[in-house]
Amino acid sequence: MRLDHSTHEVIVVGGGPAGLAAAIAARQAGLDVSVFDCARPPIDKACGEGIMPDGLAALARLGVTIPSAQACAFRGIRFLDDSHSVEASFAEGTGYGVRRVVLHTLLAQHADALGVKLNWGAHVTGASRDSVEVDGNRISFRWLVCADGQNSLIRRKSGLFAASTVQLRYGFRRHYRVAPWTDFVEVHWANCGQMYVTPVANDEVCVAFITRDLAIRFDEALSCFPRLAARLTDARIAGTTIGAVTASRRMRRVYNGNVALIGEAAGSVDAITGEGLSIAFRQASALADAMLRNRMHDYQRAHQLITHTPRRIARLLLALDGREHFRQRVLGALERHHETFEAMLGIHTGAKSPVTFGLTRAARLGWNLLHG
């Protein structure tokens, strides 16, 4: 690979969805952008592969449209355990289930079409205030965007550190060749964790398992979800099962001078929210505007606003994890008052203000939790 050693206006380290979104937004703002990643596309990752309506809207603002033939629409979220089922449709729009490699390909193609310089197979091993080291070469920049994941090497070298509390869980993803049985994303609950079922094609679903127990494996865990296991009894496994770590990590700051963080490098919320991609796509536009205006403190504020609701939702949902009695009371209350679940989903996707939840709904839910 031949490198341009002149000063680059924007260098993005990490060419996953967050890094490509940041590159696209910066290019739309008229900035010259180069992306460096040691992998080669398409880049895959263990994830639930669902994009919520707010994420699709943010993606559309970046000029990226997912062709319907390469995805599967879903209209809401359903929670289930052995004895409860509660669902809610999105107040606005639909979500899309899309294979991670398909999404990455679409983002890379759009970035390339806009004139982003994509450098695949490039190893970034160091960074200073004004340059990065790529395969032994020093390359200068005006802005550096760290999009190299939750264990970001470049973040550490740039003097940006996470808050002390980090909560880890473990995720595994598998695809099954079976026609989706619903147009909802299903979240199945058990004491060992959650399994998320996302339709990704007319003959395929993605099943992601998230747990606190690193010792448990996918097939062992599936037996804890009898409703889901029955659906998948005769389904053929497509491809391999892959794993990853999902973390709840908060950053004290998401920029330091001319170095900014995005995606999981900028902190993360547990995958239970399903909002990881949506957060990154919204961050991308905010970051590009901040770089263009040379007002990085605006990005800090925007980042806090973007992640505020997902963090609160994550705390709420994680309170149900591993607490069977409490979880059953909550799901039972939501089942009896499904409008409360609809309001919560609307807040989660940004379609409704938290004010719309209201004291009446909160009091009613609390009463049901106390009195069963």
Stretches with pLDDT under 50, minimum 5 residues: none
- The outline comes out as globular
CATH class of the domain at 8-43 and 53-64 and 100-163 and 250-317 equals Alpha Beta
How far is it from the N-terminal to the C-terminal residue, by CA? Answer: 64 Å
- CATH evolutionary superfamily of the domain at 8-43 and 53-64 and 100-163 and 250-317: FAD/NAD(P)-binding domain
CA radius of gyration: 21 Å
Beta strand %:
25-35%
Gross CATH architecture of the domain at 8-43 and 53-64 and 100-163 and 250-317: 3-Layer(bba) Sandwich
Biggest sheet, in brief? 8 strands, mixed
- Kindly name the structural category: alpha/beta
Secondary-structure element order, N to C:
EHEEHEEEEHEEEEHEEEEHHEEEHHHHH
**Proportion of residues in helical segments:** 25-40%
What's the total number of strands?
18
Number of helices: 11
Protein model, in words:
The chain is of the alpha/beta class and 372 residues long. Among the domains are: 8-43 and 53-64 and 100-163 and 250-317, FAD/NAD(P)-binding domain (3-Layer(bba) Sandwich), CATH 3.50.50.60; 323-371, no CATH class. 35% of the residues lie in helices and 30% in strands. The strands form 3 sheets. Strands 1, 2, 8, 9, 10, 11, 17 and 18 form an 8-stranded mixed sheet that branches. A 7-stranded mixed sheet has the order 6-5-13-14-15-12-16. It has a 3-stranded antiparallel sheet with strand order 3-7-4. Strand 10 and strand 11 form a beta hairpin.
